Amino acid sequence: MNVHGSELILGIVGTGIMGRGIAQLAAQSGVTVRLFDARPQAAEEARVAVGATLDSLAAKGKLSAEDARAATARLQPVASEAALAGCHVVVEAIVEDLRAKQELFARLERIVGPDCLLATNTSSLSVTAIASTCERPGRVGGFHFFNPVPLMKVVEVIDGARTEPWVGEALTGLARRMGHRPVRAADTPGFIVNHAGRGFGTEALRVLQEGIASFDEIDRILREAAGFRMGPFELLDLTGLDVSHPVMESVYEQFYQEPRYRPSYVLRQRLAAGLLGRKSGRGFYSHEGGKQQPVPAPELPRGERRPVWVAAEEAGWRDTLLTLVRAAGWALDGGDRPAPESLCLVAPLGSDATTTALALGLDAERTVAVDLLFGPERRRTVMTTPVTRPAFLDSALTLLSADGTAVSRIHDSTGFVAQRVLATIVNIACDIAQQRIATPEDIDAAVTLGLGYPRGPLAWGDALGPRRLLKVLEAMHAASGDPRYRASPWLSRRARLGVSLLTPEN
Ligand SMILES: NC(=O)c1ccc[n+]([C@@H]2O[C@H](COP(=O)([O-])OP(=O)(O)OC[C@H]3O[C@@H](n4cnc5c(N)ncnc54)[C@H](O)[C@@H]3O)[C@@H](O)[C@H]2O)c1
């Protein structure tokens, strides 16, 4: 199918939020768009709304007035499904209901020509199941856009079990024509983006559930140390628990209770309490007048100067600790063993402070651990053993904030906060690659564009070090016994071989 010609006619069924966005993109790229909706007037309302959007883009200088007029003229509301007869492609964006989508496609097959491609914008249903009741399931594919469609510049092109190769190729070409980055994915729960996105929220919830840190501290660490635009709890509040918790449960169940995607009772309970987030005025944060109210970071106590003895597992990290101590002008304890009153500052990878103190034969009452996986420049995270004396913690906080860098204090945890969340995200992305759901490049593109992470998870894993992330996962798996932390074979092999996580199978 030639999706590049000026004669291409695209039908859109369901002219709600998504249908309108898809219509706008298609019309702007020179495609004739027929709009149909089961609710009378809805298609006409969509034409008016998209026309107004195009006009306002023209007023802002983002589009010429002539292009806006031409695009609006390509929008053709129609009053019946029968008017979709001449379409080359029909995209459905109706209610998220399997029966409704199957029945629609069955009716459309009797209307459209034999070469017409039928695409579904479903986010959570199986494309294979939607196609299964069609006479020609081979012509059905997934075309999954994100909201808001014009700004989220990625579209997942989904191959169902019986989708013919030309369908994916045509949808890929059409996505490019519409100015979006197509990513190809096998028909699996959550496709790429909603699958890869499981790690961020579920692991942050585990950290909260284990009492390691408060929700706002977890957000601060992941924003300021790891570099996410939003913390997981801000994101949950923005999306609304009524949307995010069912998605978590659905992906978990669809993968037959794969422990990596296990949701948290914390969310179910908060959902029951009506603490939905911004839309209900209160979630993890309070949202007065629709605005998230900040939670101030706790004041750091001031502690006494004392000699500092340092140890780190990773090459270079001991030097980083030495530099921090010297820059603050504190005395170093350079002995083989720490002197009786020295602070023992350690930088573990994967292990908790307790395990590190015991492994090194240190006094757990004087041991404080700092996370160096993300470098020492950004917000630093420190954790204590259950018996670290407050005076030693206060000294460590004073030392580590001496240069003005923010410091978060958490309770003892295998893998701190950012290490375990990043290791989880990278591990899930590796398993998406391992299952051949998508190529490594498409996984990274889908996550960067669809979730707004600062980097694709596989490239991010490379930057942090696959061997290091494997170590974090193995430590978490050993400490918890929870199979959610078992390393994906994709990660484990590449880490041990010392090659990039983007390395495909040959
Ligand atoms: N909103 C999102 O963030 C988002 C993102 C990606 C995918 N999706 C998927 O896109 C689809 C549409 O979502 P939306 O948010 O645009 O919904 P919406 O409620 O805004 O719009 C749905 C439209 O479909 C119409 N409709 C319902 N049943 C119909 C039928 N049988 N025939 C014709 N029209 C019918 C409704 O009248 C309505 O105008 C769903 O499958 C949804 O899962 C939504």
Automatic annotation (TrEMBL):
Name under which the protein is recorded: 3-hydroxyacyl-CoA dehydrogenase
Superkingdom classification of source: Bacteria
Keyword Oxidoreductase attached: yes
InterPro entries: 3-OHacyl-CoA_DH_NAD-bd, 3HC_DH_C, 6-PGluconate_DH-like_C_sf, NAD(P)-bd_dom_sf
Disordered: annotated span: 283-302
GO biological process, one term: fatty acid metabolic process
Pfam families noted in UniProt: 3HCDH, 3HCDH_N
Keywords of the record: Oxidoreductase
GO molecular function, one term: NAD+ binding
Record-annotated 3-hydroxyacyl-CoA dehydrogenase NAD binding domain positions: 11-187
Residue ranges of every copy of the 3-hydroxyacyl-CoA dehydrogenase C-terminal domain listed in the record: 190-286, 415-497
Keyword Oxidoreductase annotated: yes
